[in-house]
Amino acid sequence: QVQLVESGGGLVQAGGSLRLSCAYSGIILRINAVGWYQQAPGKQRELVAAITSSGSTNYADSVKGRFTISRDNAKNTVYLQMNSLKPEDTAVYYCKLEDRFLTKEYTYWGQGTQVTVSS
Predict the structure, then answer these.
(1) Could you tell me which residues come within 8 angstroms of residue 19 by beta carbon, excluding any fewer than 6 positions away?
(2) Average pLDDT, rounded, for the chain
């Protein structure tokens, strides 16, 4: 069973920073990508940033230049450094791991961590 545990959320003032962590464990065939998603109240879950097994990254336009996704393979952890936070960044942030090997494909989600940015 694969588990993802997010941490690092909290309350911060606009302009501040937070670093989210996504620690994953369990039997994983081959990580295709790990991504961070945000879900604000009443809205759909949206991709914020993702990093592939080769290290390629992509970001939502709304966070480019402010957020950075990175990974530490030795710690089985993916991070999301969030700088210059804005009230509109307020959401629950979820980590998603895509496990893909040959014809087998699995998707795992963490439980989410709340980020609240006050103006």
Answers:
(1) 8, 79, 80, 81, 82
(2) 96
Write the Ramachandran bin of 16: left for phi over 0, alpha for psi from -120 to 50, otherwise beta.
beta
CA distance 52 to 91: 23
Segment 26-45, tens digit of pLDDT: 988 888 999 999 999 999 99
Q: In what order do the strands lie in the sheet with 77-82?
A: 3-7, 18-25, 77-82, 67-72
